[in-house]
Structures are given as structure tokens and as C-alpha cells.
Prior knowledge:
Blueprint: H1 2-19, E1 49-54, H2 56-59, H3 78-82, E2 95-98, H4 106-113, E3 123-127, H5 135-144, H6 153-167, H7 169-180, E4 190-194, H8 228-251, E5 256-259, H9 262-267, H10 301-305, E6 311-312, H11 316-330, H12 346-349, E7 354-355, E8 358-359, H13 375-399
Parallel strand pairs: 1-2, 1-3, 3-4, 4-5
Antiparallel strand pairs: 6-8, 7-8
Helix pairs in contact: 1-13, 4-7, 5-6, 6-8, 7-8
Bound molecules: 2-acetamido-2-deoxy-beta-D-glucopyranose (NAG) (6 copies).
Amino acid sequence: xxxxxxxxxxxxxxxxxxxxxxxxxxxxxxxxxxxxxxxxxxxxxxxxxxxxxxxxxxxxxxxxxxxxxxxxxxxxxxxxxxxxxxxxxxxxxxxxxxxxxxxxxxxxxxxxxxxxxxxxxxxxxxxxxxxxxxxxxxxxxxxxxxxxxxxxxxxxxxxxxxxxxxxxxxxxxxxxxxxxxxxxxxxxxxxxxxxxxxxxxxxxxxxxxxxxxxxxxxxxxxxxxxxxxxxxxxxxxxxxxxxxxxxxxxxxxxxxxxxxxxxxxxxxxxxxxxxxxxxxxxxxxxxxxxxxxxxxxxxxxxxxxxxxxxxxxxxxxxxxxxxxxxxxxxxxxxxxxxxxxxxxxxxxxxxxxxxxxxxxxxxxxxxxxxxxxxxxxxxxxxxxxxxxxxxxxxxxxxxxxxxxxxxxxx
Length: 410
Ligand SMILES: *[C@@H]1O[C@H](CO)[C@@H](O)[C@H](O)[C@H]1NC(C)=O
Ligand SMILES: *[C@@H]1O[C@H](CO)[C@@H](O)[C@H](O)[C@H]1NC(C)=O
Ligand SMILES: *[C@@H]1O[C@H](CO)[C@@H](O)[C@H](O)[C@H]1NC(C)=O
Ligand SMILES: *[C@@H]1O[C@H](CO)[C@@H](O)[C@H](O)[C@H]1NC(C)=O
Ligand SMILES: *[C@@H]1O[C@H](CO)[C@@H](O)[C@H](O)[C@H]1NC(C)=O
Ligand SMILES: *[C@@H]1O[C@H](CO)[C@@H](O)[C@H](O)[C@H]1NC(C)=O
């Protein structure tokens, strides 16, 4: 089952690659042809100690099968894809430390993940910064309104995020990179820092009358709409975060490389509210992010309609539950879901909600991963990373001889 899903993903990647009129698609990135190649290609064989750290974008929240409980890591995340046969290839000499954890801020990545890294790493992939500036709070206040304290809560949240981007983010990113650089192999080690992608298309006003507010009982005037102006502001924020990452990467020197996939998502029409799309359209071909009710090929759609397992306290998912729960405490008669069709899990609405490190997940499972990348989005990043790794290889093989290269050249 894994392999049929995997091949399907490559088909998606090919579609993405051909609809993207860009150079990385034409490079020597192995697509499905190299799928079962047991030997890593020469330009990737230098990657023997490999680590992936960061937040839910690096954990791949929601993409494929969950392979870890407390951090919500998934098997179609870009780190998982890279470490698989279709990408870096099988190499018994390669180690992969996969420490990314959903919900982590850059400070948590520094304290909990960076400290656990091996020394002398060839490659570290990182995704961090989005949680520092509260992107999930904006998703709550300006889009879904799982809990809304007052009518200008969205504006407050946007202001708060702008201030964090301007004042705190750079320092935090540099602090993280300063700790990561000494973990690299001194000769050829590299850090690949992945950014974020703008969530919304802004070509027309067709989404202006769309609200994704989850409580139908909420007064119409209190609901947030996906207006063109709002979409542009939220996009600007993502770009501002990317810009800060790019600057921090530049400042950190040539051991660190920024991996910017934002324009590919845009060019592929992979965002919400693309021109002519009447939202919600969660299963639209080419949509790169999860919308509520998105079902990927290979997903169990029955399971996605039911409340699944408990979720880790402090995670993205538990924020959603706690916001929802707070609204229910104030308005026990309110129904969840735009069409009031969602029966919240009655057992879990009661007392038994927080036990140790877990929070009961009382919503249908497809809410868990909204605004995260679908497998096609992770594929895009994995392909982009492969081309960056190949670029790095062409530089290091000119300046450095690494033992064992020749024997593994196929
Ligand atoms: C793994 O390392 C051993 C010892 O250095 C070497 O002989 C072998 O060729 C390597 N195998 C691969 C697939 O790189
Ligand atoms: C947000 O910032 C804008 C511009 O700085 C300001 O005019 C507005 O009053 C702020 N809104 C809130 C709710 O603080
Ligand atoms: C992140 O920035 C905030 C605000 O400047 C600061 O309090 C915090 O210590 C920073 N964290 C790191 C790891 O630099
Ligand atoms: C918004 O407007 C479009 C046409 O402009 C219409 O097709 C769609 O049903 C409307 N959506 C809502 C939620 O009213
Ligand atoms: C899908 O999920 C349902 C409900 O959780 C379960 O009963 C069923 O066995 C699952 N099907 C597959 C193919 O895993
Ligand atoms: C929901 O709120 C109630 C009352 O405040 C509390 O006892 C319960 O633990 C909360 N559950 C969650 C998941 O926050």
C-alpha cells in the first residue's frame, strides 16, 4: 500500500514538475525512474549523516501515515521522502535523525532538538519561525474562529504577529543557526533552511463572500471573511517571515542555504482561493494545502470523519481543541461546522479531556491538519532539496575528495 501511494505521489510530482515551467524540474532529480535504485546516485552519496529538525512543516503534519505520536511526524513529509529510496536512495551508511516536532518554536527547536543532534553532520534540514510569530493564532482569529474573544481579535493578532516578525524573529533565527553550524561537518556540511508558502491566491475577489468560521451561531457581523485585502495581508506576513529567514541565512554564511518553494506553489495554482475557484473546494486537483474536508488518495475517509486519537498537549491540534472547548463552555448549544453537521464526540465533550500529556480530540480528524502541506507540497520541497544537494555536490567534489565516492558512483 505504501508503494502504490508512493508511485501516485511521483505522478503528482511529475504533474507539478511539468506544470512548473522552471529549471529544477528539468535537472537530474530522480523521479519515478530511480524509484527502486538501491544505490544512491553519486551526487547524493556524500549525504551519510543527515538530520531533520523543525516544526510541523518539517514533521509533515497530516501527510500520509503518522509515524510518531508526540510530535506528529508523518511518512510523506519532505524529510521522510528525502530519506527514502526514490530520493537519496538506499545507503546503509546513512543515518537520519528525524527530530522535527509539531508546534515547536525556533527556541524549542534550539533547546530540545538541536541539542540532541549528532556531531559532524553532512546535512541538516530545518523549518522554524512560523510558530514564533503566532501564525496559528491568526488561523484561529482571522479564519476559523474556533474561539473568538472580541470582534477586533483578528486585527490584534495581525498586529501582534507583525511586531514579532519585525522585532524578535531575526534574533531567534540567528540564535538557532549559531547553535546548528558547529554541528556540521567542517568540510562540506550544509544546513538547508526551508521557508513557508503564501496560502492565498489574490487574483480576484471571488472569495470575498467566503467565511470559514466554524460556528454557525456566531453573528454574521462577527465572522471573518476571506476578503482580498485580508488575503493579501496574510500573504505579506508569510513573505515577511521568508524574508527574515533569507536574511538570517545570508548572514550565517555559505554553510546555510535557503530553500524557497513559495513561488512554485503560487505558479502551480496550489493555494486557497485561486482564480475562478468557489471555496470551499477541499479536494481540488493541485491544491497544495489541507483545507477542512480534504481527503488525499490513500487516506481513510471514514476515519477522517470521526474524532480520532487524543492529541499531544501543546501541539497545533491541541490548540484547536482548547479553543473549541472554550467556545463550548460559553455556548453549550452552539453547533460546530459551517453546515452545523458535525456531532462533537459526546464522551469527549465532558470532563475527561486533559490527562497527562494528552488532550482529547473531539472534532472530526480532518480539522487536525488544516493549513499544512499535502503530500504534493512535500514532494515539491523534496525535489527542490534534491536539486540543491546536487548543486552542493558539484561544488564539494571540485574542492574536496571524500573517501568512498568513486566506489558508489553509478
Ligand atoms: C559503506 O561504508 C563501507 C565502509 O566505509 C564501504 O565499504 C561501503 O562501500 C559503503 N557502502 C555504501 C553503499 O556506501
Ligand atoms: C493595528 O495596527 C494599526 C496600524 O499600526 C493600528 O491603526 C490599529 O489600531 C491596530 N489595531 C489594534 C486592534 O491594535
Ligand atoms: C526569541 O526572541 C524573544 C524576544 O526577543 C526572546 O525573548 C527569546 O529569548 C528569543 N529566543 C531565542 C532562542 O533567541
Ligand atoms: C460567492 O459568490 C459566488 C459568485 O460570485 C457564488 O457562486 C458563491 O456561491 C458565493 N458564496 C457564498 C458563500 O455566498
Ligand atoms: C478506516 O477507518 C474506519 C474507522 O476508523 C475503520 O473501521 C476501517 O477499518 C478503516 N479502513 C481501513 C482500510 O483501514
Ligand atoms: C474544556 O473545558 C473544561 C472546563 O473549563 C475543562 O474541564 C476541560 O479540561 C477542557 N478541555 C480541554 C480539552 O481543554
